[in-house]
Specification:
Chain B: Keywords: Cell membrane, Membrane, Transmembrane, Transmembrane helix, Transport. The structure holds three protein chains of three kinds. Chain B is mainly α. Chain B is built from twelve helices and two strands. Chain C is built from 14 helices and no strands. The relative contact order of chain C is 0.13. The chains are: A alpha/beta, B mainly alpha, C mainly alpha. Chains in contact: A-B, A-C, B-C. At the B-C interface, helix 1, helix 3, helix 4, helix 5 and helix 6 of B face helix 1, helix 2, helix 4, helix 5 and helix 6 of C.
Chain lengths: 453, 312, 288
C-alpha cells in the first residue's frame, strides 16, 4: 500500500509539477511579452512585407526587392537602430495566418505593409502608431488626399501609402480583331460590356473576367461598380449602411449576370495571370489594375492590349477605385519611435532622396501612380506619362478615382457574402441586399472605432 | 510441522514482498516511460486546448485585448447563419466521405486480394496518391480541373459536355473535394482492409462454397462479420482523417468557396480567427468542436472496450 | 502425405491457377488496370506536363512533343529548393525518430506495465486524438514563443513530435504480444528498461518501420505550423517553398508542375523503395 501510494504520488506530483511549470512559464512569458520587445531596442526592427529579400533570382520581383533592400540599407548606414526586411511568403494570400498569429501573440512586426481593406482592424485594435508627429506639414501636404485620407483618423496619420493603383478595363486587342471588333467597340456602359463580352466568349476564351475569389481583393474590385450608380456601402457622412438601395443590387446583378450569361468565368483564367491569359487567348477583357502594365512589359512585351475606363451604368458616372499598400508602424513594437522615423524618412520626407525613392518605386520598380505630388512631378520629368497606357491612367482614369474604403471585417464580410452568393450561387440580388443591409444595421448600431470611409 | 509451517509463512512473506517490490518497480518505470510523451502532450496539446477553451469566454480582438463575456460567444453562434451553414457542410462532407472511403477501400481490397497477374503493380498504383503532400495534390488537381482548358474539361468535351467549373460552381465544388479526398485516402484503407481480409481463414470460404453459398452470401455472412474489428478501426481513423485532413485540402484548394460551398466548420473557425480577428468567437466554436470530437472519441472508446477492436 | 509435400503441391496448384486466364479473372484484371491507371493519372499528368515547354503545357497530349528539362533548371535556379529539401528532410527525420522513441516508451508502459491510473492516463491521451491544429494554432504559437522556440529547428521539431495517434497504435500492438515474453527476463531480474530495449523494441521493428514511413510522410508534408512559426527563409521547408513559388508564378504551370514534382519526388521514392515494407508492416502490425 505504502509503495503504491508513493508511486502514485510521485506520478501525480511529476505530472502536476510539469503542468505548473509549463503554465508558469507561459504566464511569465505572456507577462513579459508586453514589454519585452521595447526593452530590447538593440534588436533590429522587423519589417514584414512581400518583396524583399526575394527568394527568386529573376523577374519583376528582383527589381522590387532591390528597391526595398536599398531603402533599408540607406537607413541602416545612417542609424544605429537597424531595420531588417523580412520576406513573408504568401503575404497577400487570405489563407496566410502569419501576421494575424504574430499580433495575437503579441509578437507582431515593427513595420509592415497594410492594405486599406485591413486598416480598421489594426487601427481599432490599437496596433498602429500615429506618424504625423514625425512629419513636416510640407510632407503631409505633399500626399494626395485620395491616397492619405483612408489612413487618417482625425489629424493622426497611421500609414504612408507607397503607391496609387487605379482599376480599369484592360482588353486584348488580338481577341477583338479575331471577333471582328474594333477600338470603337470597347464598351462604354454596362450593357455594351456584357454584349461585347458575349461576342468575345468562346469555348476557350472568357469574354470578361471579373474577380471571383472571395476576399478583400474581390470587394475592392466590386466597389467602383457600386459607386458608379452613386451608391455606397456606408455613407461616409451619416455612417449608415446603404445596401438596400438600387445601386448595390445593380452592381450585384452585374456580377451575377456576367456569370449566368456565360461571359465571365467562375475561376480565373491562367490562375489570374493577366498577360499570360491574354497571350494564350483565354481572356478578352479583364477588370484589373495599373500594376498590370509592368507585368505586360515583363512577361509579354509584344502583346497588344488596350486600357479603358470602367464602363458605367445608365445614368451613372465614371468612377474607379484607388488601391495601394501603405507602410505602417506597430505601436507596441521594439522601438516604435525609430520605426516611425524610418518610415517617414524613407517614404514621407521632403528630402530629395525620399521624393526620388517614391518616384522610383512607382515608375521603374512598378508601374503605378504616385501618392505624392513631388514624386509625380519627378516621374513626369522622367517621361513616365508619355507612354500611352500610363497617359490614359493619368488623365482619364485617375481623376475619377476614390481611395479604397476602409471597413471593419464584419462589413467586408457582409458585402463579400452577398457578392459571392449572387455571383456564384445564383442567389437573388434583392434578397441578398436586404440580408446584408439588416446585418450591417445591427452591427453598426454598436460599432465603436474609427469612422468608415 | 512447525518448521514446515514457518517455512511456508516465510515463503509467503517473501512472495508478497516480491510482488509489492515489482509493483513499485513497475510504477516507477511507468512514470519514466510515460514522462516524455505526457509532458509533450501536456505542453503542446493540453495547454493550448485549455487556453482555447478559456478564450471562448472572452471577446478577443487579436491584439492582446480581451473582455470577459461569459457565454456571449456561444449565444452568438446560435444566431450566426454562417456557423449553421458551415456545420451543415461539415456534416454533409462527413456523411459522404466516411462511408465512401469505407466502401471504396473495402472494394479495392477485395479486388487486389484476387490472384491476378500484375496485382502487385495495381495495388501500388492504387496506394500511391496517399504519399503525396496536400499542397502538391491541390496544385495538380487545380491544373487538371481548370475551367475550359483543363484536361478533365477537355475529356468531357469529347462527350459534348462543356463549361463545367469544378472549383467555381457551388454545386460541384464539395463533390470535387469529396472525390479528391477519397482518391488520396483510399489506398491506405485498402491496405488495412486487405490485412483484415487475409486474417479470415480460407477454410471458412471453402466450407461455405461446399454448402452452396453464393459469392454475395459468402461476403455477407463471412467477410463482413469477420471484418468487424477492421471496420471499426477504419471508421474511427477515417473520421479523424476527414475532420482534420479536410481542412488542409479546403485551405489550399478552395478557400472555403465558392460562396461558402466548402466552408467546413474547421475552416470557418480559421477564418474567424485569422481573417476577421474574432479570436474569442473562433475559440468558442473550436471548443464546441473539441468537446464534440472528444465525446465521439470516448464513445468509440467505450464501444470498442478501451480501444480494442477484437470481437470478444 | 507429409506436410512439406502437401504445401509444395498446394503451391504448385496455386501457381498453376495463377497463370490460368479465366473469364472472371480477365474481367477483374481489366477492372484493376483501369482503376490503377485512373488513380495514377493525376500524378502521371503532373510529371509528363512538367517536361512540356510553356506553350505546350495546357494542351491535352499526355506526352510532350518537345520534352524539355528547362522547367526544372529554372525552378532550381530560381529557388533554393535543395536547401528547403534538406530542411524538410532533417526536420521530418528528427521528428520521426524522437516520436517513435517516445511513443513506444509510453505505449509500452500503457500496454504492459500495471499501475494505478493507467486507464485514466490512456483515456486522457486517447481523448486528444481528434484535436487538430487549426483549432489550437494561436495558443500553440503562444506556447512555442514562450518557450523561445520561434524561428528555430527546435520549434519546427519538438511541437510536432507529440500526438496521440502513434501512442494509440503502438499500444494496440504491444497489447497483442503474448504475456510470456517478458516473464523469462523478469525472472532473471532484468529491469523494465532492459526488457523494453532488448525484448520489446526488437519485436516492434515491423510496426515501427511502418509508423516511421507514415510519420516521415506526414511531417514532410506539414505546412501550416512551419509557415506560422518561421520568419527566417533559411528555415523554410519544401511545402512553404512551393506554396510561395506558386504565388509568384501562378500561371506558369510548367514551372509549378516541375516544382510540385520535385516536392513529391522524395515521398514517391520512399514509397517505391519501401512499399513492400510499408504494405507488409501495415498488415503485420495489427493496425486493426
Amino acid at each position: 500500500m505504502v509503495a503504491e501510494s508513493i508511486a502514485r504520488r510521485s506520478l501525480i506530483k511529476g505530472g502536476l509539477s510539469a503542468a505548473a511549470l509549463s503554465v508558469g512559464a507561459l504566464a511569465a512569458g505572456s507577462a513579459l511579452a508586453g514589454c519585452a520587445p521595447s526593452s530590447k531596442s538593440e534588436e533590429p526592427l522587423q519589417f514584414w512585407q512581400f518583396y524583399a529579400p526575394a527568394p527568386q533570382q529573376t523577374g519583376p520581383l528582383v527589381q522590387q526587392s532591390k528597391w526595398f533592400m536599398d531603402a533599408v540599407d540607406s537607413w541602416n548606414k545612417k542609424n544605429s537602430q537597424q531595420v531588417k526586411p523580412v520576406f513573408i511568403p504568401a503575404y497577400t494570400n487570405p489563407a496566410n495566418t502569419r501576421l494575424a498569429t504574430a499580433f495575437a501573440a503579441n509578437a507582431g512586426p515593427d513595420i509592415f505593409l497594410l492594405s486599406p481593406g485591413d486598416f480598421l482592424r489594426y487601427y481599432n485594435g490599437d496596433a498602429l502608431l500615429d506618424l504625423a508627429p514625425y512629419m513636416s506639414q510640407d510632407a503631409i501636404d505633399d500626399f494626395y488626399p485620395e491616397a492619405l485620407g483612408t489612413r487618417k483618423v482625425g489629424d493622426g496619420i497611421y500609414g504612408l501609402p507607397m503607391e496609387i493603383e487605379p482599376l480599369a478595363l484592360i482588353y486584348n486587342q488580338k481577341s477583338f480583331e479575331k471577333a471582328g471588333l474594333s477600338e470603337a467597340d470597347v464598351p462604354k456602359n454596362w450593357e455594351q460590356m456584357l454584349d461585347v463580352g458575349e461576342k468575345l466568349s468562346t469555348n476557350s476564351q472568357a469574354g470578361l473576367v471579373l474577380e471571383v475569389v472571395p476576399g478583400y481583393y474581390q470587394n475592392f474590385t466590386f466597389y467602383p461598380w457600386l459607386w458608379q450608380g452613386k451608391g455606397d456601402v456606408v455613407d461616409p457622412a451619416t455612417q449608415r449602411p446603404q445596401l438596400a438601395e438600387a445601386p448595390f443590387q445593380n452592381a450585384l446583378d452585374l456580377f451575377g449576370q456576367s456569370i449566368k450569361r456565360g461571359i465571365s468565368p467562375r475561376t480565373l483564367p491562367a490562375n489570374g495571370d493577366l498577360p499570360v491569359a491574354f497571350k494564350a487567348g483565354y481572356a478578352a477583357m479583364w477588370q484589373s489594375g495599373i500594376w498590370q502594365l509592368a507585368a505586360f512589359k515583363q512577361e509579354t512585351p509584344d502583346l497588344p492590349y488596350g486600357i479603358a475606363p470602367l464602363p458605367t451604368p445608365k445614368g451613372g458616372e465614371p468612377r474607379t477605385i484607388l488601391g495601394g499598400w501603405a507602410w505602417v508602424v506597430n505601436k507596441h513594437g521594439r522601438n516604435p519611435e525609430a520605426a516611425a522615423k524610418f518610415v517617414v524618412e524613407t517614404m514621407g520626407s521632403m528630402s530629395e532622396e525620399s521624393i526620388k525613392r517614391v518616384s522610383d518605386w512607382c515608375f521603374g520598380a512598378k508601374s503605378d501612380m504616385s501618392p505624392r505630388k513631388s514624386s509625380e512631378k519627378l516621374m513626369a520629368a522622367n517621361g513616365a506619362f508619355e507612354e500611352s497606357h500610363m497617359k490614359i491612367f493619368k488623365e482619364l482614369i485617375l481623376p475619377t478615382g476614390r481611395g479604397e474604403p476602409r471597413f471593419p471585417p464584419v462589413v467586408y464580410k457582409t458585402v463579400s457574402n452577398a457578392l459571392q452568393a449572387v455571383q456564384l450561387a445564383g442567389a437573388s440580388a434583392a434578397s441578398q441586399a436586404d440580408t446584408a443591409q439588416q446585418a450591417l444595421e445591427a452591427y453598426l448600431a454598436n460599432y465603436r472605432g474609427a469612422p468608415l470611409l | 510441522m512447525t518448521v514446515q509451517l514457518s517455512r511456508t509463512a516465510g515463503r509467503r512473506e517473501v512472495e508478497t514482498k516480491r510482488v509489492s517490490l515489482s509493483e513499485r518497480k513497475q510504477r516507477r518505470a511507468a512514470f519514466w516511460f510515460l514522462l516524455p510523451d505526457s509532458l509533450g502532450l501536456l505542453i503542446f496539446v493540453a495547454v493550448p486546448m485549455l487556453l482555447a477553451i478559456g478564450l471562448g469566454f472572452f471577446s478577443v480582438d487579436g491584439f492582446g485585448h480581451a473582455e470577459f463575456i461569459g457565454f456571449g460567444n456561444y449565444l452568438r453562434m446560435a444566431a450566426d447563419p454562417q456557423f449553421w451553414s458551415s456545420t451543415g457542410v461539415t456534416l454533409l462532407y462527413l456523411v459522404i466521405v466516411v462511408p465512401a472511403i469505407f466502401v471504396v477501400g473495402l472494394g479495392l481490397a477485395l479486388l487486389v486480394q484476387q490472384r491476378i497477374p500484375f496485382i502487385g503493380v495495381i495495388r501500388s498504383a492504387l496506394f500511391v496518391p496517399y504519399v503525396i503532400s496536400l499542397v502538391v495534390i491541390a496544385m495538380v488537381w487545380q491544373f487538371m480541373l481548370t475551367d475550359k482548358v483543363g484536361v478533365l474539361n477537355g475529356f468531357l468535351e469529347l462527350f459534348g459536355i462543356h463549361g463545367l467549373s469544378f472549383l467555381g460552381d457551388p454545386q460541384l465544388t464539395l463533390g470535387t473535394v469529396v472525390v479528391i479526398t477519397v482518391w488520396f485516402q483510399m489506398g491506405y484503407y485498402m491496405i488495412i482492409f486487405l490485412a483484415g481480409l487475409q486474417d479470415i481463414p480460407g477454410e471458412l470460404y471453402e466450407a461455405a462454397r461446399i454448402d452452396g453459398a453464393s459469392a454475395w452470401q459468402r461476403f455477407r455472412f463471412i467477410t463482413l462479420p469477420l471484418l468487424r474489428p477492421t471496420s471499426f478501426f477504419v471508421l474511427i481513423t477515417s473520421t479523424i482523417a476527414v475532420v482534420t485532413g479536410g481542412f488542409d485540402l479546403v485551405y489550399v484548394l478552395t478557400n472555403g468557396g465558392p460562396s461558402g460551398a466548402t466552408s467546413l466548420l474547421i475552416f470557418y473557425i480559421y477564418q474567424q480567427a485569422f481573417l476577421y480577428g474574432e479570436l474569442g468567437y473562433a475559440a468558442a466554436i473550436g471548443s464546441l468542436l473539441i468537446v464534440v470530437l472528444m465525446a465521439w472519441s470516448l464513445l468509440m472508446f467505450k464501444l470498442t472496450k478501451g480501444g480494442r477492436f477484437d470481437n470478444d | 502425405m507429409t506436410e512439406t509435400t502437401r504445401t509444395a503441391r498446394k503451391k504448385l496448384k496455386t501457381a498453376r491457377a495463377d497463370r490460368r486466364w479465366t473469364p472472371q479473372k480477365t474481367v477483374l484484371f481489366i477492372v484493376g488496370v483501369l482503376l490503377g491507371l485512373l488513380t495514377v493519372f493525376p500524378l502521371l499528368w503532373m510529371v509528363t506536363s512538367s517536361f512540356k515547354p510553356a506553350d505546350e503545357v495546357n494542351n491535352l497530349d499526355l506526352l510532350p512533343s518537345h520534352p524539355t528539362l528547362e522547367n526544372y533548371s529554372y525552378v532550381f535556379s530560381q529557388v533554393p529548393f535543395a536547401r528547403y529539401m534538406i530542411n524538410s528532410f532533417l526536420i521530418a527525420a528528427a521528428i520521426t525518430v524522437l516520436a517513435l522513441f517516445f511513443h513506444s516508451m509510453a505505449a509500452y508502459a500503457l500496454a504492459r506495465l500495471k499501475f494505478r491510473g493507467r486507464d485514466t492516463i490512456f483515456l486522457m491521451i486517447f481523448s486528444t486524438l481528434l484535436v487538430s491544429a487549426p483549432v489550437i494554432l494561436i495558443p500553440t504559437f503562444i506556447v512555442i514563443r514562450t518557450l523561445g522556440l520561434l524561428d528555430s529547428y527546435a520549434g519546427l521539431i519538438i511541437p510536432a513530435i507529440f500526438n496521440a495517434f502513434g501512442i494509440f497504435l503502438l499500444r494496440q500492438f504491444y497489447i497483442s504480444l503474448p504475456a510470456e515474453l517478458e516473464e523469462a527476463a523478469l525472472i532473471d531480474g532484468a529491469s523494465y528498461w532492459r526488457i523494453y530495449r532488448s525484448v520489446i523494441l526488437p519485436l516492434s521493428r515491423p510496426i515501427m518501420s511502418a509508423l516511421a514511413v507514415f510519420f516521415f510522410l506526414a511531417n514532410w508534408n506539414a505546412f501550416v505550423l512551419p509557415l506560422t512559426i518561421t520568419s527566417n527563409p533559411d528555415l523554410w521547408v519544401v511545402q512553404i517553398g512551393i506554396a510561395n513559388f506558386q504565388q509568384q508564378y501562378s500561371s506558369s504551370w510548367n514551372y509549378i508542375l516541375a516544382a510540385s514534382t520535385v516536392a513529391a519526388l522524395p515521398t514517391l521514392l520512399i514509397f517505391f523503395f519501401f512499399q513492400k515494407q510499408i504494405v507488409a508492416s501495415i498488415k503485420s502490425a495489427g493496425f486493426k
